[in-house]
Design a protein that fits this description.
This protein is an alpha+beta fold and 662 residues long. The protein contains twelve helices and 36 strands. An eight-stranded antiparallel beta sheet has the order 7-8-9-10-17-14-13-12, with no helix packed on it. Strands 3-6-11-16-15 form a five-stranded antiparallel beta sheet, with no helix packed on it. A four-stranded antiparallel beta sheet has the order 1-2-4-5.
């Protein structure tokens, strides 16, 4: 049985999630504010303020002089804040021009500011009323449409209060209203506004007993470096800024061990940590420092299965749908294989020795689980036992074995030779069993069924064959494919069947069951595209890497630089835009971290902090022109690099003693 969903996640996904592709989602976990472009919170759909997965306020409707403002602009101003601007004409016989501007700023931390600005030539008396309501419903119930009626309100201090079985919520207003009508959930004011004057009402929404909102990413102790990107392409600056901002919005603190910070999977559906996604995102974000990786590893180490049995040593994780042709995969398998990889690579980026030594026993147990799960065989089944032998799982297991062996050797621990011997046996068998020959040059099988039949589907999961992991000296580990087959895979990934022009399709267009909106059947998944760009670049296939990189950057621009976890895999044409997926999380941890990986791949940064070196392997074709990355972190110190238009890289800032490798 799969383990229970992570805290804050929806236990069961309904058949039809409410569409969120047009929603304005303000995130600063544990707070959310979900709005439509109209600005009013009407209580319909997902609209409302949320705290820790519970809707604290579902309705917030403003009327001025008896009318609703006409919204003329709605936009996100940051990851946690949205701004709505509306207009009203309140002066009798004053002509067609609006003379009152109503600005609403809504924040994920439960604060809404309503400002009225007068452009009238005489003083105005403006009656303002705000209608409030809530159901105190769980986000999962809201998504399923299974919420009850609004709760009755009571007057409380300078606002209203609601009591329900799941807790109590209140809204306080400043200045205090002149009138409060609990039966209708109304707060009323009457303001005298001078010519060119303004007044502001501030509403604070709170779940009683929850304490003040303390978002991790907004604190001075944020584990992410404030890196910046500049260059010939003006999009790179906003792309990196937004990626880091979204990562900070998704940071959550372990409630029992508050020093340990990790990433929630994404908003609005998965606001709790998901082990595989948290590790994958922390790995891609290593150029921003190792503190996030350390907190994620420590938090997941405490979940590792102990005792005796076939699951001993696993990092638990829920099942993940794998499409129509394969059963759900176990994200616990992926997380268990990622744990030693993230630890080994974090050490290369400068993870302190004390953290490495603290986490090494957990990594050893992950590697011991891997060897026990394979047993006398060669392949790792997923899910175990009796599941298919997946291509990406073998690639992840091979990478874990080689990086794990390197880590064990470096720290004087036994077991490295056995892992390398198994990895070599896996590579030999994979060559025989997983390559499907055809007149076009062949392809890797997506999986082998329990009875040994290959599943001949070309999808984005094959990028894991190129993601071999970073060893010492700036070198990458040997992969499962030889040079000829790596070249063929690069050709396939760079071809029109897989490269949509916006990124890598989850399933090739010529494959049976292709659906451009299929979350595992053809949609562009940003995480896999970023892994593909990095892997192709490391293997020397810069043309294909550059094409995918430019496609994702163009998609990011179309999405306001806040990439969703996936979007439609329709072919890019002149003047087109990527099609949003109605159920995609936005922001999502892996999509936000992918922005960091994509831009640092341009510079080809390969650190080896224990050896005191860093090697640069920039994309020689300079697909984005000149790019300068500042404020990255190696060994805890600032690291900056510039890549010229000729594809040459130069270190501009680094820790004392860090040498440039060859």
């Amino acid at each position: 049985m799969p383990p229970a969903p992570a805290q804050g996640a929806i236990p069961r996904r309904p058949a039809d999630l409410p569409p969120v592709h047009t929603a304005m989602i303000c995130v600063s976990l544990p707070g959310l504010a979900i709005s439509t472009g109209g600005g009013q919170l009407t209580g319909h759909g997902l609209e409302g303020f949320y705290r820790a997965g519970r809707r604290v306020l579902s309705r917030c409707q403003v009327r001025v002089a008896g009318r609703e403002p006409l919204v003329v602009q709605a936009r996100m101003t940051s990851a946690d804040r949205a701004r709505f601007v509306g207009t009203l004409r309140v002066t009798p016989h004053g002509g067609p021009d609006p003379d009152v501007v109503v600005e609403r700023t809504r924040s994920a931390d439960g604060v809404e500011r309503i400002t009225l600005r007068s452009a009238a030539t005489r003083p105005l008396r403006l009656p303002v009323e705000v209608a409030l309501g809530t159901d105190l419903a769980d986000l999962g119930a809201v998504a399923a449409g299974a919420v009850g009626p609004e709760l009755p309100a009571g007057v409380h201090a300078s606002g209203l209060r609601w009591a329900g079985p799941a807790g109590n919520a209140c809204v306080t207003a400043h200045p205090p209203p002149t009138d409060a009508l609990a039966s209708a959930g109304l707060l009323r004011w009457e303001f005298d506004v001078p010519p060119d004057g303004s007044v502001t009402v501030e509403l604070r929404v709170r779940l009683e007993g929850a304490g003040p909102m303390r978002a991790v990413g907004r604190a001075a102790t944020s584990p992410l470096a404030a890196a910046r990107a500049t260059g010939d392409d003006p999009r790179v600056r906003q792309f990196l800024d937004t990626s880091i901002e979204d990562l900070e919005a998704l940071l959550v603190r372990d409630p029992v061990h508050p020093r340990d910070i990790q990433l929630a999977a994404g908003a609005p559906w998965r606001c709790g940590p998901a082990p595989a996604e948290a590790l994958a995102a922390a790995r891609m974000a290593l150029p921003l420092g190792t503190r996030l990786a350390a907190g994620t590893l420590r938090a997941l180490a405490r979940t590792q299965v102990g005792g005796k049995g076939p699951r001993t040593g696993m990092i638990p994780g829920p099942r993940r749908d794998a499409g129509a042709h394969l059963p759900p995969a176990c994200t616990g398998t992926e997380a268990t294989l990622l744990f030693p990889v993230v630890l080994a690579e974090a050490r290369r980026w400068g993870l302190p020795d004390r953290d490495t030594e603290e986490l090494l026993p957990t990594a050893e147990r992950c590697l011991a689980w891997l060897r026990a799960a394979v047993g006398e065989g060669t392949y790792l089944c997923d899910p175990r036992p009796g599941g298919p032998v997946r291509c990406e799982t073998q690639a992840q297991a091979h990478r874990a074995a080689l990086l794990g062996a390197d880590l064990l050797d470096a720290l004087g621990r036994p077991g490295g030779n056995g892992l390398r011997e198994w990895a070599q046996a896996l590579r030999t068998a994979f060559h025989e069993d997983f390559w499907i020959d055809d007149p076009a040059g062949g392809r890797p099988a997506a999986a082998r069924t329990p009875d040994g039949r290959p599943v001949p589907r070309l999808g984005a999961t094959t990028v894991h064959l190129l993601d071999t992991g970073l060893l010492g000296g700036g070198e990458y580990a040997q992969g499962l494919l030889d040079k000829v087959r790596t070249e063929q895979l690069a050709r396939l990934l760079g071809g029109p069947g897989m490269d949509s022009g916006w990124g890598l399709r989850g399933l090739g267009v010529r494959e049976a069951g292709h659906n451009p909106f299929g979350h595992r059947g053809g949609a562009v998944r940003v995480h896999e595209t970023a892994i593909g760009v990095s892997g192709l670049a490391a293997a020397g296939y810069e043309k294909e890497a550059g094409s995918l990189l430019r496609g994702v950057l163009a998609a990011a621009e179309a999405f306001g630089h806040r990439l969703p976890e996936m979007y439609g895999g329709e072919q890019r044409t002149e003047g087109s835009a990527p099609l949003p997926h109605p159920a995609a999380c936005r922001p999502a941890a892996t999509a936000a971290a992918a922005g960091v990986l994509l831009l640092t791949t341009v510079a080809g940064i390969r650190p080896d902090a224990p050896a005191g070196t860093v090697t640069l392997r920039p994309l020689r074709g300079a697909p984005l022109g000149e790019v300068c990355l500042t404020g990255l972190r190696i060994s805890g110190a600032a690291f900056s690099v510039r890549v010229s238009r000729l594809g040459l890289a130069m270190v501009e800032e680094a820790a004392d003693g860090l040498q440039l490798g060859t």
